[in-house]
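Write out the 3D structure for:
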Amino acid sequence: MNGISAENVKLGYGDRVVLEDVNLTVAKGEFISIIGPSGVGKSTLLMAINGNVKIFGGEMRVFDKNLHNIRNSALKDLRSRIGVIFQGYNLVKRSSVLDNIAGGMLRKMNPLQAAVKYYRHDQYVQIYEYMRAVNLEGEALQRCDRLSGGQMQRVAIARALAQDPEVILADEPISSLDPVSAKGVMDTLQRINRQYGLTVIANLHQLDYARRYCNRVIGMNGGRIVYDGKPEGLDNDTIADIYHGSRENESVFGAHGSVFPVAAEVVYDA
């Protein structure tokens, strides 16, 4: 089973509950964005899918595994089926694009092979395929610390693909990027979602990107899911509920109370 489900789940850290009454079902191949003000638990919900968050109550299942009582060996296997992309890229920046992407294949290599960066022919073929998927085949031998932020994030996406995942979790993947680079990253996530049939779930601060790229939007506020539906359902009243009481409310609504795009339409060239 490739699904993700949560039923009356409470999530948090230590003794603190961050999210409660979470009810959610995710089907294979969806492209979902999680939106809402800062600090409402978007990353908590995302990372709970990877088994990194304490479950206080309810039932959360990923690939038909109950995360409330999952064993370490089963959790390790589950995480191997989930690719995670972070705002900070988490690349080895002094290494090449090729070697960073190959890092996603480490569980398929023996330690000596990984240490000397020896890749079989079939692995080179796979790495090249993933570089093409993110439009970086011309940068294979370039060190990652010489790339732009958008290019580094696309390397991170390719590395996640090399893991051969069923789900990709993207935690604020474009929040530190300029609009041109952000569009390139979102184009890439949309392309791999469609090309590989991967489930993609992304935390986004940019409302217009959520509406433009995703086929489902989850809106959060007050430690709860307050909207779960199609992007077309995000009317002014719904958006006001999602961003109610937050500073982001002013960046989402214009002077006359109507929603306007946070980022301008741009042409991808980075």
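The CA atoms of residues 43 and 171 lie 6 Å apart.
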